[in-house]
Amino acid sequence: MASLSAAISRSSCFPPPNTTSLSNHRNIFHSQCRAFPLSRPSLFLRKGLTLPPGRESTSTRISASVADVSLNLSVEEKQLPKGDTWSVHKFGGTCVGTSQRIKNVAEIIIKDESERKLVVVSAMSKVTDMMYDLINKAQSRDENYVAALDVVLEKHSQTAHDLLDGDHLASFLSQLHQDINNLKAMLRAIYIAGHATESFTDFVVGHGELWSAQMLSLVIRKNGIDSKWMDTREVLIVNPTGSNQVDPDYSLSQQRLEKWYSRNPARVIIATGFIASTPQNIPTTLKRDGSDFSAAIMGALFQARQVTIWTDVDGVFSADPRKVSEAVILKTLSYQEAWEMSYFGANVLHPRTIIPVMRYGIPIIIRNIFNLSAPGTKICHPSVNEDEDKQNLQNFVKGFATIDNLALVNVEGTGMAGVPGTASAIFGAVKDVGANVIMISQASSEHSVCFAVPETEVKAVAEALQSRFRQALDAGRLSQVAVIPNCSILAAVGQKMASTPGVSATLFNALAKASINVRAIAQGCSEYNITVVIKREDCIKALRAVHSRFYLSRTTIAMGIIGPGLIGSTLLDQLRDQASVLKEEFNIDLRVLGIISSKSMLLTHYNGWLRKGIHVVTPNKKANSGPLDQYLSLRALQRQSYTHYFYEATVGAGLPIISTLRGLLETGDRILQIEGIFSGTLSYIFNNFKDGRAFSEVVAEAKEAGYTEPDPRDDLSGMDVARKVIILARESGLKLELSDIPVESLVPEPLRGCASAQEFMQQLPKFDQELTKKQEEAEKAGEVLRYVGVVDVTNKKGTVELRRYKKDHPFAHLSGSDNIIAFTTRRYQNQPLIVRGPGAGAQVTAGGIFCDILRLASYLGAPS
Ligand code: ADP
Ligand code: ASP
Ligand code: MG
């Protein structure tokens, strides 16, 4: 991907004011406060000013004594006081969604002990959508707008009846009916014209806030507290920017606010969120979800002590809680972090909320109206201590957010290199169609510029670029303007993360491990975010993968178990017994999420799983000992898909055979030969085939003891050993097929066709003689018979056969059903490296699988 090497992100276009200038603002604020001609200078001594030791109590006293005087409405009183005396609250749509909730909101406001309170409210939940729907219906000449308006009327009238009575109710209802009549007339005009202008639309949709603010204010009055409601269209003046955004005009708004306050000098003000006016007094809005922004502007105009944003979650989560169930609440965020989170899709906060309050260092607290005991998230300047606390990667990454429904546009061509003005021409064309560029990335070769825009805007963007660059495209200086649809952005956000070694590596590693392809990358020079563009369908998987990598202190592995037979159920027992130890002592959280029983193990499924990023751990030999081309493609796929495929238990059950071999190979040793007793059954049989006993008798004894397969021919044929030989041969780099391995079968030729195991066992004594002879010959020579598999790496061969070993050879001293494997290598040439131990049985096999699962956990980042 050409665009990887150097990248810029959209975030760098908005350099946040640096700390120096911020603290300057704070100082200006204090000096302004001190100079402010108010009857209550003590209000401003409360915070921020450094008093000599012992003076604090004086300031508190002054504050208390002046509070009594303030009840008289003097001329000064009508002048707008500013500063810490004000606390600003904003209640989102869900907070005022029903009459009961509006009562709760009133209670919270009343309980707040701040001296002055400015409360910004959204429309009741869903109302703004309903208002937009009215516009859509009217302009598409759907008469149902009339009925839909009735529903809006009914909803508010019902709520008012629940909340108010007497004069309050009457005055609200009279205003409501008047508004509805006006809306009806306006919608009728829209219906006739078949079109709504932007200001008509803004006028209509803002009514939800007008009604909720009036109702809330009346409920507070009903509780005996003087409160005024503010139609913020009279106060908040904004200029449209042309890209579905508005910029506040602070000085005009300040003048209007002072004027408004002189007429309404209340200590509790309930203001409408979302709505404002242009300097020409035309109603407008701060656009969807804009009430957070309203609250922040108000906070700045009043230079409030803090702005509390009340919503329906406990604060800002490390990721959207609807998408990542394990997201955690962030106690604090810096302004920049909060900005980045919201810009990149965390809709708990409108992105424009930060700048107004950051100018004055006013903290924002996000709190849950439905869970008052939760302290919420505080957004403020990072404290010095917090910086010192940051020792590990998690602390650098605060959260993750995503934006869906994007398309990437890639403008590519050799003619772009070194030509000044290309980027400006590209983004000029994009601006002309009014599209919003969310992220930009340019390769340092200047060969391509790629950027993300909302999917709805990409067609217009592509057309504009095609026409703007027609000549360059025709001349071949530009090769293409390509659109990659169905993309999402995933942003990791955190103070200083981009300059901390290891953060981006960990992020990309987590994505790779989840098999997620990254289409484009941008890392903000601001160092607050790393942004990647991925396929939309991968978005949630990617979000969960990176979140769990950074945020969960544990490595969590979700498992499915296929085939809960004897080994599977033993594994489940072992997992259950060990789970809490793994969690507490090793930080690994293994979760069995599914168990599927399956009669036939469909090995071709491995490829499908690996391709999907699912790791495979198996004790089943078939895939690795099947046709060579299938095996090689499985391994290739596993590497490409960055997944893991572990199969230690295929050879020697729980014994570390594959891992030993890998260790030797990876550290540069050369394998010369692997020789071993790989069958627990045949080990048992030959360990006991001595002292004049008949071979058939030992086989019968082994069968009786449960050491053999139900039909002992499956063991005696040697095929199981041959499969293990093939697995080890391939692991050592030999390209052998199972048919390349000569296998000495211990099943006498005439008995291979016996219909049943029983018949075979009956006939077997007739054939004892041949093996008895071999055994006696060996005995005479001071040797023993052993059934072994051999991988002769030097000669690229494998074999399974009966061999004789001196009585002092390690193979001669086995007991029970032990396996023994000898690795002869360049390093272990004179004395082979030997692994020995029980190589069959449910406990040790399940243990081998368990070991692979933990190996997987460590590959996936579990602490070692
Ligand atoms: P309100 O109407 O109060 O303004 P919003 O719906 O605009 O509420 O914002 C709150 C919602 O934001 C939450 O319900 C939550 O689902 C969503 N959300 C998305 N990302 C995050 C995040 N990182 N942290 C918290 N909430 C988030
Ligand atoms: N009511 C407006 C909206 O739904 C503004 C807000 O609630 O923030 O978009
Ligand atoms: Mg909101």
From TrEMBL:
The protein's name: Bifunctional aspartokinase/homoserine dehydrogenase 1, chloroplastic
Assembly, in brief, is: Homotetramer.
Query: What's the family?
Result: In the C-terminal section; belongs to the homoserine dehydrogenase family. In the N-terminal section; belongs to the aspartokinase family.
Q: Which InterPro entries match?
A: AceGlu_kinase-like_sf (IPR036393), ACT-like_dom_sf (IPR045865), ACT_Aspartokinase (IPR054352), ACT_dom (IPR002912), AK-HD (IPR049638), AK-HSDH_N (IPR041743), Asp/Glu/Uridylate_kinase (IPR001048), Asp/hSer_DH_NAD-bd (IPR005106)
Enzymatic reactions:
L-homoserine + NADP(+) = L-aspartate 4-semialdehyde + NADPH + H(+); L-aspartate + ATP = 4-phospho-L-aspartate + ADP
Keyword ATP-binding applies: yes
Pfam (any one)? ACT_9
Specify the pathway. Amino-acid biosynthesis; L-lysine biosynthesis via DAP pathway; (S)-tetrahydrodipicolinate from L-aspartate: step 1/4; Amino-acid biosynthesis; L-threonine biosynthesis; L-threonine from L-aspartate: step 1/5; Amino-acid biosynthesis; L-methionine biosynthesis via de novo pathway; L-homoserine from L-aspartate: step 1/3; Amino-acid biosynthesis; L-methionine biosynthesis via de novo pathway; L-homoserine from L-aspartate: step 3/3
What are the entry keywords? Answer: Amino-acid biosynthesis, ATP-binding, Kinase, Lysine biosynthesis, Metal-binding, Methionine biosynthesis, Multifunctional enzyme, NAD, NADP, Nucleotide-binding, Oxidoreductase, Sodium, Threonine biosynthesis, Transferase
Q: What's the stated role of this polypeptide?
A: Bifunctional aspartate kinase and homoserine dehydrogenase that catalyzes the first and the third steps toward the synthesis of lysine, methionine and threonine from aspartate.
Instruction: Name the NCBIfam families for this protein.
Output: asp_kinases
* Highest taxon of the lineage: Eukaryota
Domain ACT, by residue range, is 411-486, 492-569
Tell me the cofactors it needs: a metal cation
